Amino acid sequence: MKINTKMIHAGAEPDPSTGAIMTPIYQTSTYVQEAPGVNKGYEYARSQNPTRFALERAMAEIENGKFGLVFASGVAATDAVIKLLQPGDEVIAANDMYGGTYRLFTKVFEKFGIVFHYVNMQQAENIKPWINSKTKLIWLETPTNPLMNITDVAAVAAIAKPNNTLVCVDNTFASPYLQNPLDLGADIVMHSATKYLGGHSDVIQGSLVVNDQSLRDQLYFIQKSSGAVPGPQDCFLVLRGIKTLHVRMQRHCENGEKIAKYLRSNTKVARVYWPGFEDHPNHEIAKRQMSYFGGMISFELKDDSDAETRRVLSSTKLFSLAESLGGVESLINHPASMTHASIPKAERIKNGLKDSLIRLSVGIEDAEDLIADLEQAIG
Ligand SMILES: *Cc1c(COP(=O)(O)O)cnc(C)c1O
User: Which domains are assigned to the chain?
Assistant: First the structure.
């Protein structure tokens, strides 16, 4: 099945009790049993819910995987992956990633004896010196949030495999429409479904997709034991979001390209971060592993003073100043004080995230209106 058809039909089966074409919101906590232990496969909604199962099937299909698992948030999905590990196990994580992931690793899991090494993964070989018998997981994002760095997933997987190290890719920025990490050799793909999958800034959710049955069973055990499951209404919203993911992503990408090129032509802009530029350091890898370059762009102004950065952030009218991304409406964000404030300043600067960086989530409005808005704000 081709990708556009898949987005519409993934996970969808008419409801067995009524034939409803849309999976109903099964707003129930429990299921009536005919006799003790005799039931229809549904016992308690933390473990089983038909709306959630429909979404988990859909997630697996659109990521070209076998099994999907959905969680109450993106970080809850990440949390479940780390709970596969034991004290003393080591994780190689990208040095440039979502601030909340960094916070979860450093502030929550380090104290349980999991050891994290943060490595620049723009060159896959950089992970080699860190691999040893205790290395159980490699965690990466591509493109990264917010610097739009690209990691070669296939190259990382090739280094990890001989050591039996799992590779988990946070695929939130690309979405399953642009990039499928399992096809590139990753073992787990993670999403903040809050972003492009939901697509309408109205739900918090996360997901994991895997191919391996035993990995799925371990993650399902963690999902029901730790209990960070999403409610059925939220599952319904993401199921609905997936049905338009392909058309939304296409427009996000087209608008993203126009805006990246406009920003580069603006003489007040010092630097634009977008993997579609031929001179982006990993453009060739982006071209190979993604089908288009996405709607996320970051930039810095030539006047990199706090005052000027803040003035621009507060001057847009169509771009709303807010955290998050991937919704139909355009957003502008200041990573240093908003999405990435949980990373200490020294660490941020070391990894290239300046206080003057501005991040855009380009929506699906008319590109001309968005460019006019940036033009009046930047001046
Ligand atoms: C938002 C985000 C997360 C966290 O997801 P939540 O749904 O907010 O818990 C993880 N990774 C990336 C890249 C994100 O943008």
Answer: 3-242 (3.40.640.10), 245-378 (3.90.1150.10)
